[in-house]
Amino acid sequence: MKTFDVPVNYRSPLISAIKKQRKEADRMKKDFTPTLLDFGPLRVYLARHFGFCYGVENAIDIAFRTVAENPGKRIFLLSEMIHNPQVNADLLAAGVRFLQDTKGNSIVSFDDLTADDVVLIPAFGTTLAIEQRLAGIGIRTELYNTTCPFVEKVWNRSEGIAQKGYSIVIHGKPRHEETRATFSHAAKDAPSVVVEDMEQTIELAKYITGEKDAPYFYEEFKGQYSEGFDVARDLQRIGVVNQTTMLASDTQAIADYLKSVMVKKYGLTEADTRERFADTRDTLCYATNDNQTAVTGMLGVNADLAIVVGGYNSSNTSHLVELCEEALPTYFINEEAKLLSKNTILHYNFHTGLELVTEGYLPTTEPATVLLTSGASCPDALVEGVIRRLLSFYPGSKSIEEVAALFQ
Ligand code: SF4
To answer: Which GO terms of the molecular function aspect are on file (predicted)?
Structure first.
């Protein structure tokens, strides 16, 4: 796989050595067991896969190169390039400015832009309307486009099924940048509708079966369907694609459910199901798959708690948290400073959108066993920082350097 030029301060020598050793021992990525870092009174199990994915490294590489190649120019990011506060703060410090916040609200007006400005498209991609608007100003976004190829793959897949006459159901968070971008690209080719979760999918299915009257659809799915969507006509042949960072099992369950609804409604057999339901199994991103499967592998270890590191608005990170929460006490943090002490942690509840303090998060007995992973936009240096902070609570532990030596 292509390698990227990523600032060295995002790397961790310890984690790079572990990843290298695991990769060499398991080139086909069949082994999803975690890596044990045994410090004595503290045992840390690192997930087999975590941290920067292809798309994030690509975006960081392009963004910092853009800054270096354009001295004196105004450089804007359409919105957060990736959902990591440290990376975005570093870009701001390098003089890059945001045009929009993550919800699409304006920070700098497009009217203030000129053809001399540079605008970076984020890894999630953007809508056709924004691309056209920037092109109209004379800004050549293709020069500084960090859209991940795995997001583009979903767009291509949508285009493919649209050409075969299917409408497109997008499983994603309706306000997430990537889903808005994918929706925009899908809607150019076919009637499209976004479903956020299984609950919404079940409601959508009621319009397929006729359990619900068409007019209610337009209120219930307001803002989530393409212009001119005809609920009676456009749900007769469908295919499902997803925001690449959704929970893989959720997307699969949604696709399976809609397929079963179509089979029942039209009395389909195995041989003719494709007439009504497009096969789109491969639109999940490799990193999402790897990181989620690695969490499942990590959860096979008997541990006291899990810590997941990443940006609080990061979709892929919140899904890793969701998986861990089902098995053991889980703490979602965005930096090591959130480990306030051996007894107290400040962590994020993504269900409520609030940070909260929990006392007694580490066990009173030793060794303490901690499962550790991070999202696809989280620098490995942050994960190493979390390990170092945990170690500071266990005097007498082996040092990071001693344990790192085992992976050289
Ligand atoms: S999570 Fe997947 S789709 Fe998103 S940027 Fe990373 S590689 Fe690309």
So the answer is: 4 iron, 4 sulfur cluster binding; 4-hydroxy-3-methylbut-2-enyl diphosphate reductase activity; metal ion binding
Q: What's the CA-to-centroid distance between 320 and ligand 1, angstroms? A: 14
pLDDT, tens digit only, all 408 positions of the chain: 788 999 999 999 999 999 999 999 999 999 999 999 999 999 999 999 999 999 999 999 999 999 999 999 999 998 887 888 888 899 999 999 999 887 778 899 999 999 999 999 999 999 999 999 999 999 999 989 999 999 999 999 999 999 999 999 999 999 999 999 999 999 999 999 999 999 999 999 999 999 999 999 999 999 999 999 999 999 999 999 999 989 888 999 999 999 999 999 999 998 999 999 998 876 778 999 999 999 999 999 999 999 999 999 899 999 999 999 999 999 999 999 999 999 999 999 999 999 999 999 999 999 999 999 999 999 999 999 999 999 999 999 999 999 999 998
Find out whether the beta carbon of 245 lies less than 6 Å from any atom of ligand 1: yes
Q: Does 181 sit in the ligand 1 pocket, CB within 6 Å?
A: no
Closest CA relative to residue 164, chosen from 248, 274, 12, 8: 274
- Domain spanning 152-278: which CATH class is it, in words? alpha beta
Is 178 an active-site residue? yes
- Domains 8-53+286-405 and 152-278 in one fold: yes
What's the CA angle centered on 297, arms 296 and 300, to 5 degrees?
Answer: 95
- Tell the residue nearest (CA) to atom 6 of ligand 1: 55
Domain ranges of the chain: 8-53+286-405, 54-143, 152-278
Are 309 and 377 in contact by the 8 Å Cβ rule? The answer is: no
- Class of the domain covering 54-143: alpha beta
> In angstroms, what is the span from residue 124 Cα to ligand 1's centroid?
8
Contacts for 12-15 with beta carbons within 8 Å, 24 or more apart?
Answer: 12/379, 12/380, 12/381, 12/383, 12/384, 13/404, 14/384, 14/387, 14/400, 14/403, 14/404, 14/407, 15/46, 15/51, 15/380, 15/383, 15/384
Q: Best substitution site from 244, 251, 291, 293 to test ligand 1's pocket, by max atoms within 8 Å of Cβ?
A: 244
